[in-house]
Amino acid sequence: MVDTFEDMANTNVQELILLGRIIWILLLTLLTLSYLTVGLRLWVRYRITKSPGWDDAAMVVTLVCVLQVLDWVLLIEFA
């Protein structure tokens, strides 16, 4: 069976849309897991061991930087 160019183009567009949705789901899942991980670590360090360190501050700064990058991606994509 011979596919026409329009059929192949339509299939490629549908695959790209599906791939984009998969990437967004992965992005939101991993970002949620990152927030949970950092939050639980901070809770343990501050409440249980009462010994926060510079590494905790570095994790918070890194999480904020990742959030800023994602904001820029959203701004570029949807603006």
Name its key features.
elongated, 79 residues, 87% helix, mainly alpha, 2 helices
Provide a descriptive summary of the structure in words:
This protein has 79 residues and is mostly helical. The protein has one domain (5-78). The protein is 87% helix and 0% strand. The protein is built from two helices and no strands. It has helices at residues 5-48, 54-78. The chain starts with a helix and ends with a helix. The model has no long low-confidence stretch (mean pLDDT 84).
Quick structural gist:
The protein has 79 residues and is mostly helical. It has helices spanning 5-48, 54-78. The protein has one domain.
Helices and strands, with pairings:
Elements: H1 5-48, H2 54-78
Helix pairs in contact: 1-2
- Rg computed from alpha carbons, rounded to a whole number of angstroms: 20 Å
Low-pLDDT residue spans: none
Helix content: over 70%
- Mean pLDDT, to the nearest integer, reads 84
Taken in chain order, the helices and strands follow as HH
Q: Count up the helices.
A: 2
Whole-number tally of structural domains: 1
Approximately how much beta-strand content do the residues carry? under 5%
Q: Can you summarize the main beta sheet?
A: none
